[in-house]
Amino acid sequence: MLAKSQQFELSPVYCGVTDMDLPSSTQDPKTIEDNSPVYVGREEDIKKSQRMTAVVHDREVVIFFHKGEYHAMDIRCYHSGGPLHLGEIEQRPCEVCTIILILQMRKSRLIEDFDGQACIVCPWHKYKITLSTGEGLYQSINPKDPSAVPKWCSKGVKQRTHTVTVKNGHIYVTLSKASDFKCDSDFYATGKFKVIQRPSTLKKVPDFKNI
C-alpha cells in the first residue's frame, strides 16, 4: 500500500455516461453500443491529477496522462485484481533493484528500459504493465552465466487497454472489443470485483459527434 503522502488525488468519476446528450437516466443501456465513445471528464482535470477513474459501458477503467500521452486500461490488475489506479508509473521497471544486482556482478553499465515504454506498477504485488500495450513484464537472467545482465521480457498482452480520444478539451474512452481476443484482466472486470459506485443520476455531457 502507498503511504498517505504518496496517494493520488483522482479527478471526479464519471460513470456510464455515453457520448450522447442524455436528458434523463431512463435510457435503456442495452440500446447503447459497447464500442461507442464514452465521455469521462475534462482534459484540464486529468492533466492536474495525472489519472482518473471511470465506468465505461459498465466496465471500470483507469485513464493515465503521462508525458503528454493518454492511456486507458482495465482498473484491476490481471494478476490478482490489484487497484492499478493507486500504482506508480516507472520508466525503468525496478531500476534500483537492477542496478544493485549489476553492481554485485561488478558490471559498470546500466540495463536499458523496456523499449523506452512506461509501466504502471501494481501496488499489491509489484507486477509491471506497459501503459501503451498492456503487456506484462518480467526479468530474465541466464543462471549458467555469472556475468549475465538481467533483461526485461514480455509475457504478452495481459491487461486490456482502451482508446482515449480528446476533442475540444473533452476526454472520451472507447473500449476495445472483448470479442477480438481474450485478456487476463477480463476476469476482474466482472461485477463482483467492481469498486466504483454508479451515481443515482446521469449527467448531461458533450456530444462526441457534434463538438
TrEMBL record:
Q: Where is the signal peptide?
A: none
PROSITE patterns named in the record: RIESKE
Listed GO MF terms: 2 iron, 2 sulfur cluster binding; metal ion binding
Reading the lineage from the top rank, the first entry is: Eukaryota
Q: Which Pfam families match?
A: Rieske_4
Q: Which CDD domains match?
A: Rieske
> Which UniProt key words apply to this protein?
2Fe-2S, Iron, Iron-sulfur, Metal-binding
Looking at the record, the residues that make up the Rieske domain are 38-173
Check the record and name the InterPro entries matching this protein: Rieske_2Fe-2S (IPR017941), Rieske_2Fe-2S_sf (IPR036922), Sol_Rieske_ferrdox_dom (IPR054716)
Which protein are we looking at?
A: Rieske domain-containing protein isoform X2
This chain's source organism reads Phascolarctos cinereus (Koala)
Corresponding gene? RFESD
